[in-house]
Amino acid sequence: MKNKTNQDRISHFSAQLKLILTTFIILIPTLTLVYWLFFNSLQAAGFVIELPVEITTEIDLITRLLAFLVCLLPITVALYAAVQLRRLFSLYQQGIIFSYDNVICFKRMGLALLAWVIVGTISDTLLSLALTIQNPVGERLLTIGFGSSEMTTLITGSVILVISWVMKEAVEMKHEQEFTV
């Protein structure tokens, strides 16, 4: 029986995580579209997700499509981060663990998390407006929210960004040592 090296394990799990991320990249926009297309049926069946405003009646197709478009804003940021993470695992799978490409992936993921908070806050506000735009004047809502999950995401994104800077310094030091005789 052949013993697996650490690199073998990294390659194996990276390949599996790439597959999961690829599935995520395909499924999330598709499921979001399906959710909004069948929103009324799903809501009647008790399948409810947290929305910025409470929806107690059926909503028309135009409103649901508008809501889907608004939801695409944070989804786009999430997909960008997933693509970067997938790229990072692709590098790990190839045995490339300590390079500028890895640094770029970390930097972009950190920036994506910071953007996620901004876009998510804007998206929730727009979603509340989209979901109540058909209401009579005086019953339309515009909500703005910022909570602990957004703070956690901001901190996580900042930490990943700093890690990317540290990794960049380390990669530069590695290259200097390689060219030092």
UniProtKB/TrEMBL annotation:
<keyword id="KW-0472">Membrane</keyword>
<protein>
    <recommendedName>
        <fullName>DUF2975 domain-containing protein</fullName>
    </recommendedName>
</protein>
<dbReference type="InterPro" id="IPR021354">
    <property type="entry name" value="DUF2975"/>
</dbReference>
<feature type="transmembrane region" description="Helical">
    <location>
        <begin position="61"/>
        <end position="83"/>
    </location>
</feature>
<feature type="transmembrane region" description="Helical">
    <location>
        <begin position="151"/>
        <end position="167"/>
    </location>
</feature>
<keyword id="KW-1133">Transmembrane helix</keyword>
<dbReference type="Pfam" id="PF11188">
    <property type="entry name" value="DUF2975"/>
</dbReference>
<keyword id="KW-0812">Transmembrane</keyword>
<feature type="transmembrane region" description="Helical">
    <location>
        <begin position="111"/>
        <end position="131"/>
    </location>
</feature>
<feature type="transmembrane region" description="Helical">
    <location>
        <begin position="20"/>
        <end position="38"/>
    </location>
</feature>
